[in-house]
Amino acid sequence: MTPDDRPAVTGNTEANTGAKGIQRFLTLPTAAATGAFLALLLIFVLGNWVIMPLITRGTDVVVPDVRGMDVAEAKRLVEEQGLVFVNDSSDYATDESIPVDHIVMQSPAPDVSVKRGRSVRVTVSRGAPKYVVPNVRGISLNDARVRLEQARFRVGNVSYVLRTNEDLSEPYVQDQFPDAGTSLQKDAQVGLVVSIAPEMPALVGRDLGEASRTLAAMGIQIGETTSEPDETAAPGTVLKQSIAPGTRVFASDRVDLVVTE
User: Fold this and answer.
1) Domain tally, the chain
2) Which residues constitute the domain of residue 106?
3) How far apart are CA 145 and CA 133, in angstroms?
4) Are 133 and 153 in contact (CB under 8 A)?
5) Cα–Cα distance measured from residue 27 to residue 4, given in angstroms and rounded to the nearest whole number
């Protein structure tokens, strides 16, 4: 080798050394990323198939039966078991046999073994279904009774009032309690006020107390009561009445009575 060739050899060697250094530098991030990925994979495998089974071993719990309980008691019992109580406000059901705000159904079912932290979802009762009271004003008492029973109600207290005008039609429902359109549970009672223009009953010969009770039941008011002697009748017996039997009576009418002394 001549002295003129040495600088050329030295230059090529330096160039090769620089290229190798650059290549090594460029491969460093790839190796680090691969190592990090393998480390994460190892952690995942160990966590799911080795560590977690050891941690969760023996944490199975039995789902308690909370059906029929009120919401507060059911929540307490579920959470005591390490479970999550879920009461979805939109998940309600009507049930005649279970009171309002008590549990109708649950999921998972009672007595099932689950892991701690599992959710227990419940359905809450709105109580018995409600029905709308129909309008029975202006119809007869019998027709009102039929209409109410068809709507799943019963006739409650029935009171009678005398008409204020000379309407001679048959008795009809003048008012009702509660009013039409009210929502009530099945078999609730609806009170009725029946408008009547009854015929005056025959009172002569009856005891005054009996006559008074008869008139009160019909809504007829007694006006003036006087007495006179009569040897043929017991004391307190009605001898005369100012309104003849069979006469239609209205709210403004008063019947005067004469009884024995």
Assistant:
1) 4
2) 60-125
3) 12
4) yes
5) 37
